[in-house]
């Protein structure tokens, strides 16, 4: 989130500077303050779009390099569904804006932040992990090596079972 923070920072600073008519700020920055700010917000959204799932993908696969496997991340997002994923991101962004407002409200805001910060952190990581898990495990389960099929009724039963728990037939033949 560092790269988009730069244009957002410049944009906000230039906006304030334009109000105070600070002559130290280059003219073009003051003129384009809103454009720079908007570009920064769009960039932040794009980065967040890829980064949220990149981090989850990295954690789930337990490999740092997976955070940069953009192709795999796109497949995960596609499985989640673009609409579902973007609406989830919007929700997160709404929280982030609420966050900033609280942070700018002295004492009362900071106090509320202190309480909801851990809750927000848990909510964010859990909802991201849930989105990921939903998409990745939605494929039908593979027959496990731990299971065999009943010789009489064909039900999937534990490989250690002597009798079928469904039909009760002996599995020793
Ligand atoms: Zn059976």
Q: How would you characterize the overall build of this protein?
A:
By secondary structure, the protein is mainly alpha-helical. The protein has two domains: 2-136, no CATH class; 142-173, no CATH class. It is built from six helices and two strands. Helix 1 (2-20) packs antiparallel against helix 3 (33-61), helix 3 packs across helix 4 (70-80) and helix 4 (70-80) packs across helix 6.
Distinct bound molecules: zinc ion
How large is the count of helical segments? 6
What is the chain-wise order of helices and strands? HHHHHHEE
Return the structural class. mainly alpha
Q: Which terms summarize this structure?
A:
single chain; mainly alpha; 2 domains; two-stranded antiparallel sheet; binds zinc ion
A few lines on this structure:
The protein is mainly alpha-helical and 173 residues long. The protein has helices at residues 2-20, 27-31, 33-61, 70-80, 82-103, 108-136; strands at residues 147-149, 156-158.
SSE arrangement:
Blueprint: H1 2-20, H2 27-31, H3 33-61, H4 70-80, H5 82-103, H6 108-136, E1 147-149, E2 156-158
Antiparallel strand pairs: 1-2
Helix pairs in contact: 1-3, 3-4, 3-6, 4-6, 5-6
